[in-house]
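lol forgot to send this yesterday, sorry. struct tokens for the thing we talked abt
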């Protein structure tokens, strides 16, 4: 994968949210500073995909919809497998989908609350155990959400501070598609060739596939722990 990544960014009002886009200076939504795009990146607005918005706003918009809770052993979505590669990790098969809307119920987040990656051995440092060159991820640690491109992209991560309050229960929705991560409440989209992929044409370390891995409470590889996710509702489209 090329070390040069095309990044797409959209900003809108989000009181209290401070975001750094792939190595740029932090941006406070709603403030006067709208700069901070990483040097050398080609930035253009990135909104929510129309099909994703239609799926999450229409009662029958999802091709499949199901809810996952930590420790669950049964699931109603054919595209989801529980308990692999470890307990509290769900494997999402996007082979028949363009993306997934993940609506999270988060209460009193502590530690590594969740991680979503396209590698089955994703770790806390933004890499993996060499199972895939596509090891991009989205990770929530305490109240900060971080979006990281694959290590081969060689770009710094993007972070959203105060993504969720430190106490109480709150709902947050993340839309993920091929090379798109969109935060619904923040109205912020981060897009680029280094982000999560569905059926990439090549994989330098493994076989390309359409599988993503969602860990509720800790990292996908199990090396880090955390708590706070009461449940996640998945809407495939």
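and heres what i got for the seq, position by position
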């Amino acid at each position: 994968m090329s070390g040069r990544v095309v990044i797409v960014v959209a900003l809108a009002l989000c009181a209290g949210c401070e975001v750094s886009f792939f190595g740029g200076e932090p941006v406070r939504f709603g403030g006067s500073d709208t700069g901070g795009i990483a040097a050398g990146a080609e930035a253009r607005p990135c909104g929510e995909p129309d099909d994703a918005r239609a799926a999450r706003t229409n009662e029958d918009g999802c091709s499949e919809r199901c809810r996952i809770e930590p420790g669950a052993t049964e699931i109603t979505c054919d595209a989801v497998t529980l308990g692999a590669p470890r307990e509290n990790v769900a494997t999402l098969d996007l082979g028949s989908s363009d993306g997934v809307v993940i609506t999270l119920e988060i209460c009193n987040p502590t530690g590594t609350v969740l991680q979503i990656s396209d590698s089955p051995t994703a770790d806390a440092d933004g890499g993996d155990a060499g199972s895939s060159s596509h090891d991009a991820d989205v990770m929530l640690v305490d109240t900060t959400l971080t979006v990281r491109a694959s290590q081969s992209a060689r770009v710094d991560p993007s972070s959203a501070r105060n993504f969720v309050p430190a106490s109480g229960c709150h709902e947050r929705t993340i839309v993920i598609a091929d090379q798109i991560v969109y935060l619904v409440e923040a109205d912020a989209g981060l897009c680029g060739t280094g982000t999560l992929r569905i059926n990439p044409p090549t994989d330098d370390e493994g076989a390309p596939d359409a599988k993503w891995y969602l860990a509720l409470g800790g990292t996908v590889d199990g090396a880090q722990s955390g708590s706070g996710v009461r449940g996640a509702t998945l809407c495939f489209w």
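The longest helix spans residues 50-57. anyway ping me if u want another try
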